[in-house]
């Protein structure tokens, strides 16, 4: 399974901000849209990622106040990325090793979407459920003459 499979199901609707926007404005967008991350774009290029992790770090550094802080001062300016052709096993490894919850998907310099750890986990569970159904159907439809000893397949 590849990242493109997740994006195909999830869709590629994106909400972005610029690095010079006020952090308070970005937080408002995240809250209204019920999203945990924003891609930070400048002149058509990915320049950072803002997640609730960076927001919380900024709050901790400023005694609980956002003040006039810009997105640029809070964002992760070196976000880990993948491509739509990256295999899901590699994405899981990257996200786990780097404690990343969100990952921009880039093809060349074009932003294709963002996948979350939730998206990855859901894709894995859906894939396992499909395999499980196929195996159960295979066991139920086992040809009678093939294995007389196990005429009745166990119910899973």
Give the secondary structure arrangement, pairings included:
Blueprint: H1 3-10, E1 16-17, H2 23-33, E2 37-42, E3 45-51, H3 52-61, H4 71-74, H5 88-98, E4 102-107, E5 110-116, H6 117-140
Parallel strand pairs: 1-2
Antiparallel strand pairs: 2-3, 4-5
Fraction of residues in H or I helices: 40-55%
Overall pLDDT confidence: 87
CATH superfamily: CBS-domain
What's the structural domain tally?
A: 1
Quick one: overall form? elongated
Q: How many distinct beta strands? A: 5
From the N-terminal CA to the C-terminal CA, the straight-line distance is 25 Å
Strand order in the largest sheet = 1-2-3
Strand content: 15-25%
CATH arch. level architecture: Roll
Radius of gyration: 22 Å
Give the structural class. alpha+beta
Tell me the number of helical segments per DSSP (H or I, 4 or more residues long).
6
Report the order of strands and helices.
Answer: HEHEEHHHEEH
Question: Biggest β-sheet: count, sense, barrel?
Answer: 3 strands, mixed
CATH topology: CBS-domain
At the first level of CATH, what is the class?
A: Alpha Beta
Low-confidence stretches: none
Concise overview:
By secondary structure, the protein is of the alpha+beta class.
Task: Give a description of the structure.
The chain is an alpha+beta fold and 156 residues long. It has one domain (3-140): CBS-domain (Roll). Helices cover 44% and strands 18% of the residues. The protein is built from 6 helices and 5 strands; from the N terminus they run αβαββαααββα. It has helices at residues 3-10, 23-33, 52-61, 71-74, 88-98, 117-140, and strands spanning 16-17, 37-42, 45-51, 102-107, 110-116. The strands form 2 sheets. A 3-stranded mixed beta sheet has the order 1-2-3. Strands 4-5 form a two-stranded antiparallel sheet. The protein is elongated and about 75 Å long. The two termini are 25 Å apart. The mean pLDDT is 87.
């Amino acid at each position: 399974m590849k990242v493109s499979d997740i994006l195909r199901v999830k869709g590629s609707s994106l909400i972005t901000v610029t690095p010079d926007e006020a952090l308070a404005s970005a937080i408002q967008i995240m809250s209204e849209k019920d999203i945990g991350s924003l891609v930070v774009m400048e002149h058509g290029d990915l320049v950072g990622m803002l997640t609730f992790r960076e927001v919380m770090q900024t709050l901790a550094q400023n005694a609980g106040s956002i003040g006039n802080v810009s997105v640029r001062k809070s964002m992760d300016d070196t976000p880990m990325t993948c491509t739509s052709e990256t295999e899901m096993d590699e994405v899981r490894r990257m996200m786990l090793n780097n404690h990343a919850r969100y990952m921009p998907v880039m093809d060349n310099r074009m932003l294709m979407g963002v996948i979350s750890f939730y998206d990855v986990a859901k894709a894995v569970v859906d894939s396992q459920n499909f395999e499980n159904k196929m195996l159960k159907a295979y066991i139920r439809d086992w040809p009678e003459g093939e294995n007389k000893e196990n005429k009745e397949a166990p119910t899973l």
